[in-house]
């Protein structure tokens, strides 16, 4: 690829990060291929409920980007890159105002956007559209992308699955894609932005997110040698409930509007345990704190929404009430809602720099698949912001890199670069399920070294037994997908085992303290034969110093 060559950028994923990246590229005159298994209307981003953070300072509280920065760094236990968080929080108001100009129906009063309280934040800075914020943001950005489709700058490829990147001379020269309709493979030249979402499919039945986000893209990239960071930090949302195949999220917005967590005492009275321990703001402590308290409590917890006003239900939470009534047969206006923690967000992911470059020339990542802004625990309202801003930031980096001739011309992929990629067969379903169960067993809310090592040992033993039983030890093939998932599963567990402290969403019973010597980024990489691990210490700076 030469500087004077017309370059088309490949974006993998059509949720908010992918849409934002595609739009950012198209606005700068760069052609885009937008690949996704499903349409944008079915992306994980649609399920985000509560809102998007920005220091608009419309609530008379003297909010500022600096306070947003401080809350984000503290909520992430000072593990995020302070320069990245600074950039995110400084640009957040423009992100929200741009969405407002696109017609996103944010809740308004007296002509201005209304912002609500959200966990871990001292000020009201979460803009929202009832409890369906993600869905309306996706709709707005989808409309914008369609304009660029009409002009020919963006071409959509729905029903297309990412299989691997094409690496030539240490450069990402393109991407291999599988067409789910024609069952054919093709390679596409150009830089690649990964916006494939979280790893929900690694934890079936335990997450609030769609298992259509299988985690396979991440597993394949890991097997190709891409570095991943902070995989041990998995956020449990405190207010979820079990439904068929997944967990139903009961948005933090409910607590932002006055919902209270409690359990029944032996005499039948309510114990508002978070308020007793943390004061009046206890119900809006960061999610890792509340989930940990619930795990230690060991009792059924309820969310009390019965004191919310009629206006609050009608104007701000009516869709949430409808959802609870539909799935739980409980009217939250009239009776408490039983809740328990469920996996909700993956702070770790593809390691990226401030420009969302992923360590290989021509490869970028944004959204939940990337390790960027959230450190050891994500604040509610920062995920939608991070996805939209991260996608835009990746697009800007691609444009800059094209202009600067950063792509050395590794050679365009062609038919010789197409490789078969095999998916899990029926005979492999049992070992896949076994690995998933052991992964979940090791990575609960409260962990310890013995359980983590046992999970690793059991997975290794089970996988080796499977190789013998399947004949793979005698040269018979197993699927590429299974091998990728095996390596990635071990990388997640190894990251948790090696972090011998408690910080944010990672709580170790055997190492209960937060230690300065572990204030660093855990980095894992498949080197072709084994998993490499290292901890890169984050130096103190004047923009983020741990107490």
| CATH fold topology of the domain at 426-537 | Methane Monooxygenase Hydroxylase, Chain G, domain 1
Our Rg estimate from Cα atoms comes to 23 Å
- The tally of strands reads 26
Strand content: 15-25%
Range of helix content: 25-40%
Q: Please identify the structural class as seen in this structure.
A: alpha+beta
Total number of helices: 14
The largest sheet is: 6 strands, antiparallel
Provide the spatial order of strands within the biggest beta sheet: 15-14-19-18-16-17
End-to-end gap: 48 Å
For the record, the CATH class of the domain at 426-537 is Mainly Alpha
CATH architecture of the domain at 426-537: Up-down Bundle
Query: What would you call the shape?
Result: globular
Nearest-integer average pLDDT: 94
Give me the CATH superfamily of the domain at 426-537: Fumarate reductase/succinate dehydrogenase flavoprotein-like, C-terminal domain
Q: Regions with pLDDT < 50 over 5+ consecutive residues?
A: none
Commentary on this structure:
Helix 1 (16-27) packs parallel to helix 11 and helix 12 (429-442) runs parallel beside helix 14 (480-498). Among the domains are: 239-341, Alpha-Beta Complex (Flavocytochrome C3, Chain A, domain 1); 426-537, Fumarate reductase/succinate dehydrogenase flavoprotein-like, C-terminal domain (Methane Monooxygenase Hydroxylase, Chain G, domain 1). The chain has 547 residues and is an alpha+beta fold. Strands 15-14-19-18-16-17 form a 6-stranded antiparallel β-sheet. 34% of the residues lie in helices and 21% in strands. It is built from 14 helices and 26 strands. It has helices at 16-27, 65-75, 82-101, 133-151, 216-223, 253-256, 273-278, 287-297, 310-315, 318-328, 382-403, 429-442, 449-470, 480-498; strands at 8-12, 31-36, 52-53, 108-109, 112-113, 115-116, 126-127, 154-158, 160-168, 171-179, 184-189, 192-194, 228-229, 234-243, 246-249, 260-264, 270-271, 301-304, 337-346, 349-351, 363-365, 370-371, 446-447, 507-508, 520-526, 531-537. The model has no long low-confidence stretch (mean pLDDT 94).
